Amino acid sequence: SVVIQECYVQNTAREYAKLYAAEAEPLEGFGEVPEIIPIFLIHRPANNIPYATVEEELVGEFVKYSVKDGKEVNFLRRDSEAGQKCCTFQHWVYEKTNGNLLITDLQGVGMKLTDVGIATLAKGYKGFKGNCSFSFIEQFRALHQCNEYCEMLGLKSLRTTHQKQRKTTSTKSKNLPNSSALKKVAPKKAREHRDFISSEH
């Protein structure tokens, strides 16, 4: 059911947020870390709709920090500390899961977030399948701009890895005519170089 899926997604995202907090909070100058509030499933057998969710009520201005399709267009988000930390959280999860999982639709009041979504690649990640299209992951990778919190956590810029890939591919094709010559001189080196390229894709 949708309700059960919603609980599963939010509580999975909550676990990632706890790991993110554990890594970010000790850093000097990082400050408060976004938190995803728990969502509880209750079973009401006498009711027409037997399952419902219960969560803490968030009081204050409700802001959508990241939109559901991975585009970072929300200016309220971009300029705020909470918004920047949400983007860093997305980048951190993306890096931790090797680009297999993205937490999206980050929204809430201040640093307390709820009703989030998760995108995974089609096959899922570690037995978990997200409830958002995996195209969001592509969009995030193309559009994410690192901020000071990404730098504090030492996250790799997604832009430069993209350009590096293009450069590597172009040099690879240029080297093709003399690749046989290369092989004779240093077969081991050439092999390692190829592995390096394929592992980047």
TrEMBL record:
<protein>
    <submittedName>
        <fullName>ALPK2 kinase</fullName>
    </submittedName>
</protein>
<dbReference type="GO" id="GO:0004674">
    <property type="term" value="F:protein serine/threonine kinase activity"/>
</dbReference>
<keyword id="KW-0723">Serine/threonine-protein kinase</keyword>
<feature type="region of interest" description="Disordered">
    <location>
        <begin position="161"/>
        <end position="201"/>
    </location>
</feature>
<keyword id="KW-0393">Immunoglobulin domain</keyword>
<dbReference type="GO" id="GO:0005524">
    <property type="term" value="F:ATP binding"/>
</dbReference>
<dbReference type="InterPro" id="IPR004166">
    <property type="entry name" value="a-kinase_dom"/>
</dbReference>
<keyword id="KW-0808">Transferase</keyword>
<keyword id="KW-1015">Disulfide bond</keyword>
<dbReference type="InterPro" id="IPR011009">
    <property type="entry name" value="Kinase-like_dom_sf"/>
</dbReference>
<feature type="compositionally biased region" description="Basic and acidic residues">
    <location>
        <begin position="192"/>
        <end position="201"/>
    </location>
</feature>
<feature type="domain" description="Alpha-type protein kinase">
    <location>
        <begin position="1"/>
        <end position="158"/>
    </location>
</feature>
<dbReference type="Pfam" id="PF02816">
    <property type="entry name" value="Alpha_kinase"/>
</dbReference>
<keyword id="KW-0418">Kinase</keyword>
